[in-house]
Design brief:
By secondary structure, the protein is of the alpha/beta class. The protein is about 40% helix and about 15% strand. The chain has 27 helices and 25 strands. The strands form 7 sheets. It has a 6-stranded mixed sheet. α14 (about 270-280) crosses α15 and α17 crosses α22. It is globular. Bound molecules: adenosine-5'-triphosphate (ATP). Adenosine-5'-triphosphate binds near residues 236 and 240.
Length: about 675
């Protein structure tokens, strides 16, 4: 029986065919797999550059293209006959000698450009890789087919021009060397193309079938017709992860907590989903997949249903948000749901304290210093550091603030109400209490989960982290965390080590959602500079890049808000006319008023209109961000007055930048930004 592996392109090409052809193709592939009567057989292609390539007749005038070795068939695509033959003649395949993964390249195109590379080399004595010997090149997996070409490359521009024609595993180490990196740097770059952990077995460049097994990003082996249906029906992200994503989410076991950081669209949420699915399938115990808002957790839950087919495994993963978790733990302990205090009532309580400081200042001090460090007494508060708070406080001032905190917490207690952060703190305390006989050497604890996977980690408060830490035992594979400090939209700045989570960090650098033009503009908008939180010290956006190019963001200035709204309606109307489904278009504004105006202006078109906060976690084809004007982005009332606390104000500005960055980086295709009056100071010039 043939063993069949499907490439990521195959389901896409299949989806583009007419329904009757598609049906015939699926029937033929099933027959081929089962080796039954009427199954198509591989036919050699005249003029092909690779002897292992063949075609299978899968439907009337349609062929699949396969690479065959022994009983293994890698099904690459399905195309009309002539196109399938042309495809089979263009491409060549090899095994990367360093990593043992499959390589594929457009040999026809490469043959065509080679003479011009040679001519350019004859005209210039410069050679980009003159100081890397052949042995080193071979150690980096540079194949025999490519080495003579590589030797002709005169400069970085020529190398970059060749990028689309080279397999990524050939280009990556060369690009690193060209940037001036050492052999070790080039090897690291190459190693990032590896999807599965290396084994002791030496790489056999002739064993293409083994290479396919090492390339799960390129080939999915199907063992049964049911699996085949799954591969053909499930969305691509369920099956094919890029190498770094695959490696991170399917790593057998982590001794320590893992923190994966990466810019917008690098696949962090996908990794969190796949890690949860992997744990559900291969590890024991209950799993919590958690994020900070209910809307996002609902979306995660739906996507997890798609990812985990097995019902029992799916049931082992609970998807939720941290506030809900805290509420549930407290409710279980107290026997009834806790009552929450509203924002207005809380402000009134702070006002009652008649403190010299504003209610907003006191609230921040309580949340970001007292609750963040779990301070229980005045003495602890007097001696506590106040990171992120710019105004120094004297001892008497701290004492006065502590009295205010005591007043507010006392009042809340009397009223039987709490804030969400108080609930998180109480839930953490409840979980940390040991139960059972304290004289026993190991007192039983009450962690409700064996594994916790955290998405959007940048927005969790230290108290929430303490809750999560307490909800899972200190053991291998306890916490798997993904986040992006540059996308923080709330005031939570926490280094994980300060809440008892000693995480090992892994970085993702490639955005698969954004075209380079939107990405580069977004990085300038975000400030390009470091962001603090999650890791000790600052996280840079350096090295963050995209895999494709597209349109530059369009920034439109209008004279009045009315004209801006008219411009928006015209723009969105044009997108709909161009055939973009309304559900793939998003409009965002910073204030509720602007959202209302845009919603009523666009009512007929049925597109999603939301606040910047509401854009978190979404993915859209085209996005319009409106009202990006001075005084609106950032809104003045969201900033701490500079006189009150300059450092808090600087953090507010970073948070507001982060918000705009989040809204703009939802666009996978086109981004339109508009304002009336003066532009927001955040807009790149
Ligand atoms: N392996 C993949 N297969 C298919 N699509 C992918 C893959 N990896 C990333 N993408 C594309 O990139 C998008 C971004 O993925 P994801 O939402 O996981 O990124 P993220 O890092 O969590 O983004 P953000 O931080 O901006 O919310 C996906 O929705 C998908 O369009």
């Amino acid at each position: 029986m043939p063993r069949l592996a499907i490439s990521p392109e195959f389901p896409r090409e299949l989806g583009a065919l007419d329904q009757p052809v598609r049906r015939d193709v699926v029937v033929s592939v099933r027959r081929f797999m089962q080796n039954v009567a009427g199954a198509p057989h591989p036919e050699r292609v005249r003029g092909s550059r690779d002897p292992r390539i063949a075609t299978l007749r899968l439907a009337d005038r349609h062929r699949g293209v396969v690479v065959k070795q022994r009983d293994v068939y890698w099904l690459l695509t399905v195309l009309p006959d002539a196109e399938a033959w042309a495809y089979a003649q263009r491409y060549r395949f090899s095994v990367n000698t360093a990593l043992g993964v499959v390589e594929m390249w457009d040999a026809a195109a490469l043959d065509q450009v080679e003479p011009s590379v040679r001519r350019a080399a004859e005209a210039s004595p410069a050679r980009l890789f003159f100081n890397t010997c052949d042995t080193d090149m071979m150690e980096l997996g540079i194949g025999r087919r490519f080495l003579p070409l590589v030797r002709q490359i005169t400069d970085r521009m020529m190398l970059e021009a060749l990028e689309p024609l080279l397999p990524p595993t050939q280009y990556a180490p060369l690009a690193a060397l060209a940037r001036g990196e050492s052999m070790a740097g080039a090897w690291r770059e190459l190693d990032s193309c590896r999807a599965v952990a290396p084994t002791r077995d030496p790489v056999d460049p002739e064993d293409f079938a083994a290479a396919l097994l090492r390339s799960p990003d390129r080939a999915f082996f199907v063992g049964s017709p049911r699996e085949l249906n799954h591969v053909l029906d499930a969305p691509g992200w369920c099956l094919f992860l890029h190498p770094a994503q695959h490696r991170l989410s399917r790593w057998e076991s982590y001794e320590q907590p893992i923190l994966v950081t990466g810019g917008a669209g690098t696949g962090k949420t996908l990794i969190a989903l796949h890690r949860s699915a992997f744990l559900a399938k291969h590890a024991g115990g209950r799993i919590l997949l958690v994020t900070f808002s209910q809307g996002l957790s609902a979306d995660l839950s739906i996507r997890l249903d798609l990812l985990i087919e097995d019902e029992t495994a799916r049931k082992r993963v609970e998807v939720g948000n941290v506030d809900r978790l805290a509420q549930r733990i407290v409710a279980e302990a107290e026997g009834r749901p806790p009552r929450l205090v509203g924002a207005a009532e809380l402000t009134a309580l702070w006002r009652e304290t008649e403190s010299d400081h504003s209610p907003a200042f006191l609230l921040r001090e309580w949340e970001q210093v007292v609750l963040a460090q779990n301070l229980q007494t005045l003495e602890e508060y007097l001696g506590a550091p106040r990171p992120g708070r710019g105004v120094e406080l004297t001892g008497p001032e701290r004492t006065e603030i502590w009295r205010a905190v005591e007043h507010v917490t006392g009042q809340l207690r009397e009223r039987g109400k709490r804030t969400l952060l108080q609930l998180a703190a109480e839930a953490a305390a409840l979980l940390s209490q040991t139960t059972g006989d304290l004289l026993e050497e190991t007192a039983p604890r009450r962690e409700p989960y064996r594994h916790i996977v955290v998405d959007e980690a940048q927005d969790l408060h230290p108290t929430q982290w303490r809750l999560l830490r307490a909800a899972v035992p200190h053991a291998h594979d306890d916490l798997f965390i993904v986040g992006d400090p540059h996308q923080r939209i709330f005031d939570a700045r926490v280094a994980l080590c300060s809440v008892g989570i000693e995480a090992i960090q892994r970085r993702l650098q490639v955005s698969y959602r954004l075209p380079q033009e939107i990405l580069a503009w977004g990085v300038r908008l975000r400030g390009g500079g470091p962001a603090d939180g999650l890791v000790d010290g600052a996280e840079e956006l350096y090295g963050f890049h995209a895999t494709r190019h597209g349109h530059r963001p369009v920034v439109r200035a209008y004279d009045s808000p009315e004209e801006e709204l008219t411009g928006l309606v015209t723009q969105v109307g044009q997108w709909v006319e161009e055939g973009v489904p309304p559900r793939e278009i998003g409009v965002a504004a910073r204030t509720a008023g602007l959202v209302r105006d845009a919603r009523s202006a666009l009512r007929e078109l049925g597109v999603r209109v939301t606040t910047f906060h509401g854009m978190k976690g979404l993915e859209l084809r085209r996005v319009a961000v409106i009202g990006v004007a001075d005084g609106i982005v950032p809104p003045l009332d969201s900033l701490t007055p500079a006189g009150e606390d300059p450092s808090a104000r600087a953090h507010d500005l970073q948070r507001e930048r982060g918000l705009l960055y989040v809204a703009c980086t939802r666009a996978g295709e086109l981004l339109y930004v508009s304002y009336s009056g003066r532009a927001s100071p955040f807009l790149p010039t």
